[in-house]
Amino acid sequence: SRYLDVAAAQMGPVARDEPRSSAVRRMITLMREARARGADLVVYPELALTTFFPRWVIDDESELDAFFETEMPGRETAPLFEESARLGISFYLGYAELVREGSEKRRFNTSIFVDGTGTIAAKYRKVHLPGHDEPQAGRTFQHLEKRYFRTGDLGFPVWHACGGLMGMCLCNDRRWPETYRVMGLQGVELIMLGYNTPVHHTGYEAVDALAGFHNHLSVQAGAYQNATWVVATAKGGTEEGSEMIAQSAIVAPSGEIVAMASTRGDEVITARCDLDLGRFYRETIFDFERHREPSAYGLIVER
Ligand code: CDT
Q1: Domains: count for the chain
Q2: Pocket of ligand 1, candidates 139, 147, 171: which has the most ligand atoms within 8 Å of its Cβ, to mutate?
Q3: Complex ipTM > 0.90
Q4: pTM to 2 decimals?
């Protein structure tokens, strides 16, 4: 057995006018609790430092830029890195990233993995951007990720850390089997995932009523079919009037939920993950080398 103690640090709403320093203070409180409960890794939500701003049309560029980080760590996020190094705990953080190249601005929905020395060891930029690039008439809340972010350009990397092979993705990525499979083919053992999911994200009542079910369905299937642990962390609760699902969960390679949040606010859940557990699946039913038939899958990448 190779045990890794992990935590999901679910966050309740972050208000539009809540300063980064306040969100970071909340995150440090959660990090300390995670560490006190034995965790070596803590996973925060997607866009953890700010409110989920893609719900609004923001035409003013400086107003939009204010939601983005131009450096990581920056002045306000540095305390998180310092506390991680002090406690010797690794963390995953989702945030909006602004890269300036000459006069051009490139914006990504990004996550990083910071090791227990407070050093950024891996970066991921969200590949599956949901929603629209133009505002939709008749909606109380927009979902304008396609307007504000570029498609991630870093693929789905995996890397060695915390005694295992780690990977990451962000929110909508979790609904796509390809996300897990690309990491599964690289032998991933634990995937970190942050999300912001408005309950009313499709506008179809019958579908939206199943938002919690579809969340867990996607993560549990991805974990099982790729023999990996998944640590899925929500920003939940009612944020600026938008109701977001919570139900953060730690899912085993069996597909079973081994820990789940019971509130919609700031809450730490933990689990002791045996990174060897995936072998039972990887060496039997999901022995990719023996059982996959890639010659029959061409359509997946052709269209
Ligand atoms: N943040 C994010 O990706 N949210 C989406 C819901 C919105 S779809 C318009 C999700 O898949 O949870």
Answers
A1: 1
A2: 171
A3: yes
A4: 0.98
